[in-house]
Design goal:
The chain is built from 4 helices and 14 strands. By secondary structure, the protein is an alpha+beta fold. It has one domain. β13 and β14 form a beta hairpin. The chain is globular. The termini are far apart. About 20% of the residues are buried.
Length: about 240
């Protein structure tokens, strides 16, 4: 088989796998409310998307204000082998941007706030979880979660120049969920970050592992007395 034909076949395989991955991303449009408020007026509309790039695939999640203004975005860039290469969280309104770049067994964390910028290199921790693939991560660990076993992972926090370890596990000590769902609680094992972020509760479909609701701590912020602070939210998903 000549080199040209081999290259064409490899490209076709990669394109087919990429399309399968894109199709596997369940599209949703969720409504986000301040925690404990009524469900009449969402403060954000939360959507996801996926697209091919020259290098591979981009998986994204976006938070829009009711007037359509983009408040925050999270994008994960995968190469042709579907290994992640770059992760970006952007808050245009706040002029904040968090970036993570994979460099072999290291990662570069970059946080920019207006004209200020800080960088830090850390060891790559595994598994490293990103928002755009949290649904697939829950499904991959569904049997463990249903049985009550804890699952550990890391989340990038460029603002704090580190990768933070989190734990998720099943809990019955919650007002959320129903007969056809169970609830997992997510919390950080970092004392420093726990000052800023509390617990998050995910309402999960018992049968297929679909995330139906999220309650509690979030990466979203609101302005309080001239300062932007993390907020607790209620998120309700509708799959398209």
């Amino acid at each position: 088989m000549n080199c040209k034909l081999t290259m064409i076949l490899k490209t076709m395989v990669l394109l087919t796998v990429s399309l399968m991955l894109l199709n596997a991303q369940e599209r949703f449009e969720a409504e986000v409310y301040w925690q404990g408020s009524d469900r009449e007026s969402p403060v954000f509309i939360y959507k996801n998307d996926a697209d091919t790039t020259e290098a591979g695939i981009m998986l994204g999640q976006y938070y829009y204000e009711p007037n359509g203004t983009l408040f925050a975005s999270e994008e994960l860039f995968l190469n042709a082998e579907h290994e992640w290469e770059k992760h970006v969280i952007d808050f245009p309104v706040l002029e904040e941007r968090s970036e993570l770049f994979r460099k072999g067994d290291k990662v570069d964390l970059v946080f920019t706030k207006k004209e200020k910028r800080k960088e830090r290199t850390r060891d790559l921790e595994i598994p490293l979880l990103f928002g755009p693939v949290q649904q697939s991560f829950v499904r991959e660990n569904l049997d463990l979660l249903r049985s009550g076993e804890p699952v550990y992972f890391y989340v990038p926090a460029a603002e704090f120049s580190r990768l933070i370890q989190f734990k998720i596990e099943k809990t019955d000590n919650t007002p959320y969920g129903g007969e056809d769902t169970f609830v997992i609680v997510m919390n950080t094992r970092s004392i420093i970050l726990s000052w800023f972020l509390g617990d998050s509760y995910f309402v999960i479909d018992k049968d297929d592992g679909t995330i139906r609701e999220i309650h509690g701590s979030s990466v979203l912020k609101q302005e309080v007395n001239g300062k932007w602070e993390y907020i607790d939210v209620d998120i309700y998903f509708e799959y398209l």
